[in-house]
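chain below, 79 aa
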Amino acid sequence: MTGDKNEQEQSFNILPHPAKSNNPADLNSEPAEHGGLQSASYNAYNAKGPHIPSHEIQQGLEKPKTREELKAEAEKLNS
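prediction:
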């Protein structure tokens, strides 16, 4: 604050709001293809069905454990 004439006072401008009405939906653009909250919801209906592995892959999987085996393993881990 030496009183130099080079210092200028800050000025602020008020910009107009982009809304044309009070409806917040008017501010939303068309749904984007890349996702997000504004994405098109119809993509959920274009999804593929569940994946069913081939017979060879099914044979290679281990058999599920019984309730007794799971209970015994839980007791072993919790002790």
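The helical segments are 55-60, 67-78. The chain has a mean pLDDT of 79.
thats it, cya
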